[in-house]
Each structure stands twice: as structure tokens, then as C-alpha cells.
Write a structure and sequence with these properties.
The chain contains 11 helices and 2 strands. The protein is an all-alpha fold. A two-stranded antiparallel sheet has the order 1-2. Helix 4 runs antiparallel to helix 5 and helix 6 runs antiparallel to helix 7.
Length: 297
């Protein structure tokens, strides 16, 4: 979480920053920004915020420094990496859940306590990389113990492109104003790893994270090239625009396009039979195979 203080620009993404008049499709709407449309992921986020607010309030009351919260989150994530390395996926899920609560609230606490700082942003970003490396190293260790060199390579490539996703943005933003493009950012990676651990579908998750991380790095390279050369972004109109929008990702979270991608990803992870992916850990039929067997009988 960035610890810089910033003045929010009026937008429907940030309803707290209202403009005195807003133009939507060429019309001014009642001098107020329209309310953001509720989406599936937006609703889930709103529900999750209820218990987190109490924890944020507690940390603020105790005046726990946000840098301390960040460090605690990383230490807990190292425990999750250990659990992944020994194939204890349920323990890994619970541990990652705890770790990422700290990772989420540190920025909120920094804002409430007015402790935003350049070092805080650096500290948070650097320790995030340690967490990413630890979790995926745990999976590499697991697959090496199982003698699965194919998944050692898949996990290693996922680690490389996960780090390159963050590096590409950081390097791009030393040259251009902003480079927040591409779908597979850190929150998506962490949530998917948690889902993979909770449902024993880590192989499917790794494939999704790897492919979309490669695409995200490519998006950021291409966007930076366009921006530096003052070239227009790909069209969002017609059939070409549909594919551009899907694979050159510029939409915000908690929007309808984002929900569609999330549903497609979860369908792949949960519906594709583990045997099709050669999953080293999941040995059940999988939902598709179970349905097909039920139909045959």
C-alpha cells in the first residue's frame, strides 16, 4: 500500500472526490458524480471491509506503526511458504489469510495515523517482494521433493514473471506518469494462491498466474512504448476492441469486465480436471469429470 498522501481526482472510481458537475455520455448529471455500479467483486470487497475496519481501529487506538504491521505480514507469509513447501495447503491458506490482513491494513493505518512517508512506501514495496518470493519458493521446494521437474519450472517461471510484473511498472513509472495496466497484479496473485491452497487446485492457479503475468509484463512494455512515443492506445471499438480490452488490460477493479475475468479464471481453476494439468497434489476427479461420469451413469 502506498504511503504517499495524494489529492484524489474526481472520478466515479473514487466517489469520495466529488466534482461539482459531471459529464456522462455528453450530459451533466445533477451536478454530482454518478454512483459506482455495484459488482460481484465490489460486493465481496465491501463485505470483507466490515471486520477489517474493527482491526484497523484497534491498530490506530494502539498506535501500532504501519511499518511494524508490514513486517509482521511478511514474517507470517514466510510461515505460509513453509506450509506450502510441505504440502500443508489448508495451513498455508489460513496463514496467508492472516498475513495479508496485515498487508492490507498497513496502508489504512498509515493514513489514519498520518504516518505516510516515502520510506514507508519503499518498505512496503520491498517486503511485498520478499513475500512473493517466499511463497513461490515454497511451491518450488514442494514440487522438487515430489520429483516433478515440470512444475518446478512452472513455479519458477511464475516467480520470475511475478517479480517482473512489479519491476516493469516501477521502471516504467520512472519514465512515464503511470503504468497501471495488465490484469495480474499482486492482489490477484495472492488471492489466487490462497484459493489454490484452500481448494487444492494449486496447479490450475499457477498456470493462470503464469500466463496472465506474462501478458501483464507485455502490456506494461507495450504501454510504455506507446506513451514514450506519444502513440494512441489500441482501439476499444468493434471486434478488435473486444480483444484489445480483454488482453490489453486497462480496466479498474470492481467493474463488470473485471468480474467477467474473475469468473473465467475461477471456472478454469475449479472446472478443469486436475489430471488434465498433471497436478502433483490433487488426485480427485475434478468437477467436470465428476459431472461427465454422473451423466454416463
Amino acid at each position: 500500500m502506498s504511503r504517499f498522501r495524494a489529492v484524489a481526482e474526481p472520478s466515479i472510481i473514487n466517489p469520495a472526490a466529488r466534482a461539482s458537475s459531471v459529464t456522462v455520455n455528453g450530459r451533466t448529471v445533477n451536478g454530482r458524480a454518478p454512483k459506482p455500479r455495484m459488482t460481484l467483486t465490489g460486493a465481496i470487497g465491501a463485505v470483507c471491509m466490515f471486520p477489517l475496519r474493527a482491526l484497523i481501529n484497534l491498530c490506530v487506538a494502539l498506535r501500532i506503526h504501519p511499518n511494524t504491521l508490514t513486517l509482521i505480514g511478511v514474517i507470517i507469509n514466510v510461515g505460509a511458504a513453509w506450509a506450502l513447501g510441505y504440502g500443508r495447503f489448508v495451513i498455508a491458506f489460513v496463514t496467508m489469510l492472516c498475513a495479508n490482513i496485515f498487508d492490507f491494513i498497513d496502508g489504512k493505518v498509515a493514513h489514519r495515523l498520518q504516518l505516510q512517508s516515502e520510506f514507508g512506501a519503499f518498505w512496503d514495496s520491498t517486503l511485498d517482494r520478499f513475500s512473493d518470493l517466499a511463497l513461490l519458493t515454497g511451491l518450488i521446494f514442494l514440487y522438487s521433493k515430489l520429483g516433478r521437474s515440470d512444475y518446478v519450472m512452472i513455479a519458477a517461471l511464475t516467480l520470475i514473471f511475478s517479480i517482473m510484473t512489479s519491476y516493469a511498472r516501477a521502471r516504467a513509472e520512472s519514465l512515464v506518469k503511470k503504468c497501471k495496466v495488465g490484469f495480474m497484479e499482486r492482489p490477484e496473485r495472492i488471492v489466487l494462491l490462497m484459493i489454490g491452497a484452500a481448494t487444492n487446485r494449486m496447479a490450475g492457479v499457477l498456470w493462470v498466474v503464469l500466463v496472465l503475468s506474462i501478458l501483464t509484463v507485455a502490456n506494461r512494455i507495450y504501454y510504455t512504448y506507446l506513451d514514450l512515443n506519444r502513440l494512441p492506445l489500441p482501439t476499444r471499438k468493434g471486434i478488435a476492441g473486444f480483444f484489445n480490452r480483454a488482453f490489453f488490460w486497462t480496466d479498474e477493479r470492481a467493474t463488470l469486465p473485471y468480474d467477467i475475468w474473475v469468473v473465467a479464471i475461477l471456472a478454469f481453476v475449479w472446472l478443469v480436471p486436475p489430471d488434465w494439468l498433471g497436478d502433483p497434489m490433487a488426485h480427485d476427479q475434478g468437477l467436470v469429470a465428476w459431472i461427465a461420469g454422473a451423466i454416463r451413469h
